[in-house]
Write a structure and sequence with these properties.
393 residues, alpha+beta, Rossmann fold, Dna Ligase, domain 1, 7-stranded mixed β-sheet, 5-stranded antiparallel β-sheet, 12 helices
């Protein structure tokens, strides 16, 4: 009988998408095949403390007004370089009597936004030699940073909307000069976005200089940089997920149905007000209405799928990523953003193609183990003997 892998599902984190991550984490845990894996929930609180505990096995823990965090065990990650496993060590025990709570064979990062989707968590795992599902450090960082994304798109002749970046220091020193620079790049209306956030957090449209000023002040609350783009009012939004493999596989397309001019955070995640009550069998995050497959001309759908695969390859993404596009009134396609850890891992798009969420996770785990074995054959060190006595000057 084969030994079960202990899969650590990490969710939460110090991010504006904290609760969204909890939903993805629980959907993932529900879908994992318990006959093949031991599943260990690992919750990172908003203050960056890591927790494990039996209470985390049920999402009801977070539905309370005041979840009993004190009933959980705080831990810290301690990698075992010899085995490539992640030890979770009790943090509150005495210095002389630390005990290992769990030993993780592979991590599924189910975190969205800052410190989880941007390469920070991936960097911790990469340095520690711990296998993990999804994109690596580089791809995660590029996908999270809209300015880096545009640089990669430009280098690969992929279409994106004209933009202008605004840095907080420059804005605070001379906001008028910053707005004049924006106005030389594009006419109103404009879309203003934080450079390193997702889920439509901090996003506002601007139809005048006054609205632009307010939107930039708002966006810069969430980071050191924001950007403006030409706002295409009568656009169609279409998303395509891509699955890692020897040849990346595009999913069917989805078209989010929005009520507002901008697809808001509430529309994406609250919708019917069920919030985190969504089960793994529900169609993605709460309440977002989707047309699957997207009803667009087949030629246009083929172009979008081709672009999605090219973008996925250009940033070196792994696991599942979702690439979001905008189509203007003349059927011109522009890339909007890349989600290296999409909400619910976009499993509902793969279900439409006959691959269940459980099968999707099995594939991501197998792929992660394959990549770790490949990386283990890579040479990372070089003995130069610069510190030996014979090399002294």
């Amino acid at each position: 009988m084969s030994v079960k892998l202990n899969i650590g599902v990490i969710f939460g984190g110090r991010s504006v998408e904290h609760e969204v991550s909890i939903v993805t984490g629980y959907q993932t845990m529900e879908a994992l095949d318990r006959s093949r894996y031991i599943v260990t929930p690992i919750y990172i609180a908003r203050d960056n403390v890591w927790y494990v505990g039996e209470g985390l096995q049920d999402i009801e823990f977070f539905r309370r007004d005041h979840p009993p965090i004190e009933s959980l065990t705080s831990v810290y990650p301690s990698p075992d370089a010899a085995t490539g496993k992640l030890n979770l060590i009790e943090a509150r025990a005495s210095a002389l009597r630390k005990r290992r709570i769990s030993q993780i064979d592979l991590v599924i990062p189910a975190m969205h936004g800052s410190f989880g989707e941007d390469g920070c968590l991936q960097g911790l795992l990469e340095m520690s030699g711990i296998p993990y599902a999804g994109s690596n450090v580089y791809a995660s960082s590029v996908a999270m940073d809209k300015l880096l994304t545009k640089a990669v798109l430009q280098a690969n002749n992929l279409p994106f909307l004209p933009y202008c970046s605004i840095f907080k220091d420059a804005w605070e020193n001379d906001p008028l000069a910053a707005m004049e620079q924006v106005e030389t790049r594009s006419d109103y209306p404009l879309m203003v976005k934080p450079a390193r956030l997702g889920s439509s957090v901090g996003v506002k449209s601007a139809y005048s200089r006054d609205e632009l000023e307010n939107a930039v002040y708002f966006a810069l609350r969430f980071g050191e940089t924001c950007l403006t783009e030409k706002y295409i009012e009568d656009c169609t939004e279409v998303n395509c997920a891509v699955l890692d493999g020897d040849a990346p596989i595009p999913s069917v397309l989805e078209k989010p149905i929005r009520g507002e001019k901008i697809l808001t955070f509430d529309e994406k995640y609250r919708g019917d007000q069920k919030g985190a009550k969504q089960k793994a069998g529900s169609k993605g995050m709460a309440g977002l209405k989707r047309e699957i497959p997207a009803q667009i001309p087949s030629e246009l759908a083929d172009i979008i799928r081709d672009y999605a695969v090219r973008v996925f390859a250009a940033i070196g993404a792994g696991g599942v990523a979702r690439i979001d596009f905008i189509i203007d009134g003349e059927d011109r396609v522009y890339l909007n953003e890349i989600n290296s850890i999409p909400g619910s891992f976009a499993y509902y798009l793969w279900e439409n193609m006959g691959r269940s969420f459980t099968e999707l996770l099995d594939y991501m785990i197998e792929r992660a183990m394959t990549i770790r074995k490949r990386n283990n054959r890579t040479t990372y060190s070089f003995e130069a003997n610069l510190l030996s006595r014979g090399n002294r000057r």
